[in-house]
Amino acid sequence: GENVEQHPSTLSVQEGDSAVIKCTYSDSASNYFPWYKQELGKRPQLIIDIRSNVGEKKDQRIAVTLNKTAKHFSLHITETQPEDSAVYFCAAHMDSNYQLIWGAGTKLIIKP
Amino acid sequence: DTAVSQTPKYLVTQMGNDKSIKCEQNLGHDTMYWYKQDSKKFLKIMFSYNNKELIINETVPNRFSPKSPDKAHLNLHINSLELGDSAVYFCASSSGDLNTEAFFGPGTRLTVV
Fold it and tell me: Rounded to a whole number, what is the distance in Å from the CA of B8 to chain A's nearest CA?
């Protein structure tokens, strides 16, 4: 079945620097890749997603890239701010599967 | 911010008890879910349900059962609670299949003592 690996498990960056979180998936039939942000004690919320017919998507300081050949996708956050501190989850889905397969999460710490 | 709501927010109970968590969404979504998030923050889907089909993650013990009185509600019943059931349980909903945005409820922190 599908498997999603997410790295790193913890990422600490200086405020203003960029952060990159990477995920790899195992099933080439996966076609939808969302990223969720979960602040401490709060619910996960979608921040960006990408479908397999697109290589890159941007939304202000956040971007996601997808490499279908290598079966990996990455979240890029530029000009990091304190409010970016949270746990970020990647996930993968394919139409024949009944569930999203989630990565284990990355705790992003923004140092002032 | 009450698109998906859950009650109670906190639940402390003894082993062996039976408890329920309620979930309601006012987004008009067709599909609702229950997730379990353990102490290591892993998110695991337990059930996916729409007005046509209940899909169960086969790893979920049959002590857990979803009940949907209508499209806007999906409650979670847990029988014979065990220590390992302690976790945060999130309800979520989406307008369609799993390739659309899922809106999560605020979570219910269940502690079994």
Answer: 15
Per-residue pLDDT tens digits of chain B, which is 113 residues long = 579 999 999 999 999 999 999 999 999 998 899 999 998 888 988 988 886 678 777 789 999 999 988 889 999 999 999 999 999 999 999 886 667 788 999 999 999 99
Which tokens belong to A100? 């999203």
A-B Cβ pairs (cutoff 8 Å, strict): 48
Q: State the nearest Cα–Cα gap between A16 and chain B, in angstroms.
A: 27
| Neighboring chain B residues of A5 at a CB cutoff of 8 Å | none
